[in-house]
Amino acid sequence: MPVAERILEVVDLVKDYGSRGSVTHALRGVSLAVERGEFVGVMGPSGSGKTTLLNVISTIDTPTSGRVWIGGREVTALGRRELARFRRERLGFIFQDFNLLDTLTLRENIGLALSIAGAPAREIDRRVVAMARRLDLEEALDRFPYQVSGGQKQRAAAARALITGPDLVLADEPTGNLDSRSARSLLEALEELNRELQATILLVTHDPVAASYCRRILFIKDGRLFTELVRADAPRQRFFDRILGVLAELGGGGDDVR
To answer: At what angle do helices 106-116 and 150-162 cross, to 10 degrees?
Structure first.
């Protein structure tokens, strides 16, 4: 049986904020690993440290101590210029508020990273169209962000994140600004891309419905890993019910799979 490739490894991550007189311990020695092709969720109550964890992994923030490897590269040892290049070339981001450029069409937004990298125009268009087809965006490619729905904006953001074939896609509450139908469409698309392209996705969410699309979930409480759930072959409704059980222990919940 082949050995799985470890895409993300976090070791003894600590992040403190504030001065000596008033220190907030956001992360308290977190360690975790994600293998290539995994779809992993991170959940926890407000103030648990999940957003801080995502910020450190994404290289947006620096840890107080601890180490992070992505794709075999120790990102916590990189300088500012190296980090900027690493983020551009090796990571994909999906944000809650889309972060699309209003002056560019969806086609141009999706292909922007390839353009910056100097890819030929014909190759960019081929890859953009192929990714748009997977995300049901072909008819909207030549529209501007203000001309499409929130769901289409977020699917375009997902296409932009995945177009370069990054080592890791980091999704921060990607369904937070979507209605239930648009959220389901996005999550089903991410689930399919994870399965068919072996895209490695780390999804931070407060929503148990969104989390139920993941294959594994890490729960954080008070800056530490509390527990994890693995979906295995369980139906999504059953996995959702198990998620609610853990959230009840943490102090959160939901109603039903939408």
So the answer is: 20
Domain assignment present for 16: yes
Tell me, yes or no, whether 1 lies in a domain.
Answer: no
Is the CB of residue 207 less than 8 Å from the CB of residue 252? no
Q: Which segments within 20-84 are labelled E, that is strand?
A: 22-35, 39-43, 65-70, 73-74
Distances (CA, A) of 214 to 9, 90, 149: 18, 22, 25
Q: What's the pLDDT tens digit per position in 12-57?
A: 999 999 877 788 899 999 999 999 999 999 999 988 999 999 999 9
Residue 19 belongs to some domain of the structure: yes
CA-to-CA distance for 65 and 10, rounded, in angstroms? 11
> In 113-223, at which residue ranges do the beta strands (DSSP E only) sit?
168-172, 201-204, 216-221
Domain that holds residue 46: 6-250
Looking at the structure of the chain, the number of domains it has is 1
By residue count, the chain amounts to: 258
CATH code of 36's domain? 3.40.50.300
Per-10-residue mean pLDDT for the chain, 258 residues long?
A: 78 91 91 97 93 94 96 93 91 93 97 93 96 95 97 96 96 94 95 94 96 97 96 94 94 49
Question: pTM of the entire structure?
Answer: 0.92
